[in-house]
Amino acid sequence: MAIHYIQEDRKIPVKNRKSHKEWLTGVIKEEKRRVGVINYVFVSDNYLLKINRQFMKRDYLTDVISFNYGSEKVVAGDILVSVDRVYENADKFKVERNNELDRIMVHGLLHLIGYEDTTKEEKSIMTQKENYYLKKR
User: Fold this and answer.
1) How many domains does the chain have?
2) How confident is the model at residue 32 (pLDDT cuts 50, 70, 90)?
3) Fewer CB near the terminus (10 Å): N or C of the chain?
4) What would the pLDDT profile of 106-115 be if each residue is shown by its tens digit?
5) 13: domain CATH number?
């Protein structure tokens, strides 16, 4: 199985794709899951806003939406990443764009693994996981 990077209406911003995919695969393995087919799709704010309205019934900009097609043991799905939102957030929070991209990509992956961020407690766990895996990057 494999991790794919797909350009929709934004160029793929990932540098050194081979090591990036190895890092994401390591996250999955450390979470005691197997890699299925995972598609990272890079899009604009407008593209992701349409998806957010259509499938999530939410009318606001977001940086990532995950569609889970996996099982309890196999991580699979589509992760749509708004490159516009990632870059704007990086500037806003004064972090490197690549670092913010990594955070959003691992965030989407953690959703496929089964983590949620609806409650304050869930958000705290998700942020801890993100920080942990970002240190391994």
Assistant:
1) 1
2) very high
3) N
4) 999 999 999 9
5) 3.40.390.30
